[in-house]
Model the fold of this input.
Amino acid sequence: MLLLVALAGLSYDEVAQALDVPFGTVSSRLNRARKKLRRALNGTNPLLDEEETHR
Done:
């Protein structure tokens, strides 16, 4: 789901329809996936350039 939203640019509604799951399921799974990803990256955001990270 995370890839569908982040890379494919699908909305939560589009992901829910594509996977035939409720909107709430998409929302909660994405929230959990983002938390796991943040922990795996030790709280850093690789999408921010280095200057923004050190503010």
